[in-house]
Design a protein that fits this description.
Length: 202
């Protein structure tokens, strides 16, 4: 039921955004951030204050990703997600993780859904070059481990669902080092997730 609700909400938001100026964008390349593994605009493992896509005020932008990784030991990770940014102010994201447990627990996977929301509070990471003040955003991620009763519960986790809260500050300095841009980011996060929630919460 929770999985279906996540997908219905995100599908509605994505469909709504496609009717606006999804293709248009006036921000610099890569200022939408690379995708964070839980769907938010960020640095792979960490959310950034940047808003997904390349939309500015009165524009909507979106980002999406899929990643597959496999170790020599047979563990597999499939990650997919998408995020929609509205007016370079608000971001809604969804991420799905599927972790294959190899021969450790044969034929078993741990699946997790993450629904996120982020709001830019103040600052602009790119265009405020005349001040040291970074772009600051607050966000939340609601996570649900579909396979909690299998491995996570057996390892002592307390809950299948958790909420992460974070505050991020991101600053980009243009042509800072040898003509190359420099990005600085600091993220403070409150979480009860074990291994991002793949091993449950608490």
């Amino acid at each position: 039921m929770l999985k279906k609700s996540f997908l219905q909400i995100f599908t509605f938001l994505l469909t709504t955004s496609l009717t606006t100026s999804l293709i248009a964008g006036e921000r610099l390349l890569a200022t939408g951030g690379v995708m964070q593994i839980e769907g938010s605009a960020g640095g792979g493992l960490t959310p950034w204050a940047l808003i997904a896509g390349y939309g500015t005020r009165e524009e909507t932008g979106a980002s999406a990703f899929y990643t597959h990784a496999k170790t020599n030991g047979g563990f597999e990770m499939n990650l997919a997600g998408a995020a929609v940014g509205f007016d370079n102010r608000v971001e809604i994201s969804y991420g799905h993780q599927n972790f294959g447990l190899s021969d450790t627990v044969p034929n078993e996977h741990i699946r997790m859904h993450t629904l996120g929301a982020k709001v830019r509070l103040f600052g602009d990471a790119v265009y405020d070059q005349d001040t040291w003040i970074p772009q600051v955003a607050a966000g939340a991620q609601i996570k649900h481990n579909v396979d909690f009763d299998k491995v996570p519960k057996a390892l002592g986790a307390e809950s299948a669902t958790g909420v992460d809260l974070y505050l991020s500050a991101t600053k980009i300095y243009l042509a800072a080092i040898g003509g190359r841009n420099l990005l600085l980011n600091l993220t403070l996060q409150a979480t009860k997730a074990n291994q991002f929630g793949l091993l449950g919460f608490g």
